[in-house]
């Protein structure tokens, strides 16, 4: 009984460690995704535009598309390492990200590139989709990266049919 409690406690502590490491990794990724937007905002301010002029440019939608794409990569990587018995959960999560995140961000990007002047509603939609992209990347990205860390040390038995190279 005491041994089981110790093992369970160690497992929970390991999961917390993986989640903390995943959070730092995802925050680092997020900083590099947002970096070009920060530079564009600095340039906008230096030439006399508003700090919020970035909302009028398509770069924010491009950043949203990158966020949703990176989220998909993290989710796929996490599930690839865990080798779930059914593919329903990962497929559902990826479908949600594509349908409600990636596609709308690309549609808004296309509209921003083709419509002049840019309607206020489209600017608002772009900002909301970007915020959703950050939230989605943090939520699913941390979980996917933590799964990769947790199960990444174990060898994936994908090529059991191949002879070993000993």
Overview of this protein structure:
The chain has 166 residues and is mainly alpha-helical. It has one domain (2-152). 78% of the residues lie in helices and 0% in strands. Helix 2 (59-82) runs antiparallel to helix 3. It is elongated and about 55 Å long.
Name the poorly predicted regions: 1-8, 155-162
DSSP strand tally: 0
| Mean pLDDT reading | 85
What portion of residues is helical?
over 70%
Overall outline? elongated
Structural class: mainly alpha
Residue fraction in strands: under 5%
Give the domain tally: 1
Q: Could you tell me the radius of gyration in angstroms?
A: 20 Å
Q: Give the SSE order as H and E letters.
A: HHHH
Straight-line N-to-C gap: 42 Å
Biggest sheet statistics: none
Question: Treating each run of at least 4 consecutive H or I residues as one helix, how many helices?
Answer: 4
């Amino acid at each position: 009984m005491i041994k089981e409690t110790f093992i369970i406690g160690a497992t929970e502590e390991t999961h917390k460690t993986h989640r903390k490491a995943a959070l730092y990794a995802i925050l680092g990724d997020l900083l590099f995704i947002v970096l070009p937007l920060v530079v564009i905002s600095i340039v906008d301010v230096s030439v006399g535009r508003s700090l919020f002029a970035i909302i009028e440019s398509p770069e924010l939608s491009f950043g949203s598309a990158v966020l949703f794409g990176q989220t998909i990569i993290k989710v796929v990587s996490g599930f690839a390492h865990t080798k779930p018995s059914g593919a329903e959960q990962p497929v559902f999560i990826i479908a949600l990200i594509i349908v409600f995140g990636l596609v709308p961000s690309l549609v808004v990007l296309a509209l921003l590139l083709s419509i002049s002047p840019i309607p206020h509603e489209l600017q608002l939609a772009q900002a909301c989709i970007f915020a959703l992209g950050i939230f989605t990347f943090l939520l699913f990205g941390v979980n996917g990266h933590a799964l990769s860390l947790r199960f990444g040390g174990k060898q994936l038995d994908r090529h059991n049919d191949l002879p070993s190279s000993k």
